[in-house]
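Sharing a chain and its predicted structure for anyone who wants a worked example. Both blocks are below, sequence first, C-alpha cells second.
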Amino acid sequence: MSAWIETADRVFTRRFQPVNVTVTAVLGGDGVLVADTRCSVQEGHELREELAKLTPLPVRWVVNTHTHFDHMWGNAAFDVPHQVPPADFWGQENMPDFDRADPEFATFSEYLLREGGPEWQAKLDELVVRKPDRLVAAEHALDLGGRIAELRHIGRGHTDNDLVVWLPDAAVAISGDLIEQSGPVAYGSDSFPLDWPATLAALDGLTGQAATYIPGHGDPSDHGFLQGQREFVTVVAEQIRALHADGVPVERAEQAGGWPIEDAAHFAQAVRRGYAQLTGELP
C-alpha cells in the first residue's frame, strides 16, 4: 500500500493492492469526492480509514469510473450502516445491474478464488454491491464547495459506461481504465476497441496539453502519455479493421495481427469485440 500523493491542489492519489488500483480523493470545501473504492467491502473500510487520516472532511460523493469490481465493490463501506450519513453514489447510466444469481458471477467468483487466493472467499461472502443511483448520461457538474467536478461520459472504450471526472480548476482528469499507466490498456469482454481512439481524442480535446491524467491503475501522467495511449488504441483498432477486411477469420486474427506489444493473447477480446462491431453483432 502506497502513501497519498498530492497530485494537484487538494487532489490526492494512492495506489492499492490487489490489482494496483488507483484511488483519487478530491477535497472540496464541503467534503471529499472519492473516485473508485477498491475490490471489496473490506477494502472499502480500509480506504475509509486511510481517508480519515488524510482529512477530517466527510466523504460526500463516491464516483465510479466504470462498473468493474476493482473500482466499485468497496462502495458499500460508504453507505449505511457503515457511514451515516451515506455518500451520494455517481456513475454512468449504462452501468449494468448486478445479480448474484447470474451464471457469469459464479464464473467470475471462481476466477477470483483461483487467482486471488482463499482470502477472497470471505470478501465474496460479505459482498454487497452498492450500484450508483445518481446516473450521468453525458455530463453533470458537481459542486464540492468552492470547486466543480465535471462528470463526463465522452465515449465508449474500456466499457460502455466509462466516466471521466474533470477538475478544471486543477487541470486534472480522473480517467479510470480509459488509460492505464502500470500496464497496457485492458481489452475485456465488455470493451469497445473500435470506439476507443475517438474517445481518447475527445478526452484530449476536453483537457488540453497542460492536463494531468490519473489512470485506473498506475501513477498520474502527462499529455505525452495520453498521446501514447491514443497511438496504442489506434493501432489496435486499425489492425482489427484490416484483418476483418482481409477476410482473416476471427479465430486466427489474434495471431495474425501486428500488435503494439508482443503478447498477442492480450488482444484476444479486442479482436472478438471488434469483429462483432464490424459484423453488426454489437451496435
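Comments welcome. The mean pLDDT is 95.
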